Amino acid sequence: MEKDVVFAINYALNKGFQIHPDALKILERVDVNELERVIKEIVQEKSKQKLFLINQDDLEVFLGLKDDEKLESEYRVLSDPSSKITSAEGVEGYGTLFASRFSKLKKIISNRPEAKMLKTISSAVSAKSNDDMYICGLLSERRVERNITKLIIDDPTGSIETIVFDKDLQKTAAALLTDQFVMERISFGKNGGFIVKDIIIPDIPEHIPNRSKTETCAAFLSDLHIGSMYFMEKELNDFISWLSSPDPIARKIRFVLICGDVVDGVGIYPNQDKELDFVDIHEQLKKTAELLSKIPQHIKVFVTPGNHDPGRRALPQPAIPEIYNSDLWNQKNVSMLGNPAMVSLNGVKVLMFHGQSIDDVVRTTPGLSYDKPAQVMRYLLQARHLSPIYGSQTPLAPELDDMMIIDEVPDIFHSGHVHVVDLDLYRGILILNSGAWQHQTPFQAGVGITPTPGMAVIVNLKTFKVYTKDFTSKD
Fold it and tell me: Which of 434, 466, 467, 430 is nearest to 452 (CA)?
């Protein structure tokens, strides 16, 4: 018997395991360079299960000789804006959008006990009461003058300027995003003006996440930028090959979620053509379809658009139009969705949003940066809106219904856009930014952005344990 096999047997025995004779025959056929890793990982996995017999089945599943049929892989699309987009026009259209935002967020906040005491802004202005009153609306303006903060709030009945003196409340006010929904407790001051006593935002309630019944895993990717000369094709191919490997984590993956900027696009920024391998959008998408077709058929793939992908740039975005590449749409294991979208994976609700509004929030909120995108995503959850700021860098379409509101509380919130892998946990929600598959570009280097590319983020949907797998070369 080879000494490597003897080592494997002794290692398992010393850990309190027995090895079935049929399993021993398989061990003798394993590549000696892989044997130590294989036996250690099987022992680790079986120890978690408190099962101390290594049998033929264990080795066949681990080595890919037999499928693990116990993994659940059910999915449903819970929301997708693609078929619901009905843009209005001009000032009237945006008026309808903000009316929808107000009514939907007021409904969300109505679960709070204070909401029973809400007054319209017009009635609060008329009353000028010394008693506490509650109002709600969208924050249209915030001004800091000397030692006070002034907030201007709008609702369908009118507008009100409120004054914040309290230092702690001023910190809360400083973190508010323009055009986000707020509720305030106010009273009319002795010297005139409406004084803010409390600021309440819709926020996420404490949340117990849904879990998969089996240890099915999902891989989270974004910002492939296929077509760019900086696209990491080798690393993405290595990831796709790894999905078919005997690696114990890879064998549990049943879902891949790609959250926007699948291609680099054409004409997105000045002189972009000088940084493209494919200067035609159809060629970029043809390459995309070719790469994604290599993903094993038992793995379901969800693709949403970003600001580099063809189609509408304003939010919400429909799925990448089929006219640009029907091959993507015709792949049986690929679902093309809009941005944002929500999917259920074995009952686990995943909110996918490319993350364009991260730019606006970082630009207007002190203390936030591109290095920590998960912190910015936390702000969006607190606002219950994926792109609250109007008139900044992120274009918003004048939809009849505001589809950027976070109506349903997700279990996982997945974004990309900033090319930095980052994780956070907020009130039971796993916040995940999945980095990129594009090397640092000259633009990023010029503005000091250091991406973390070539990394797959994998989540066990039963335990919510997060793994990162780095596919970058270590030369």
Answer: 434
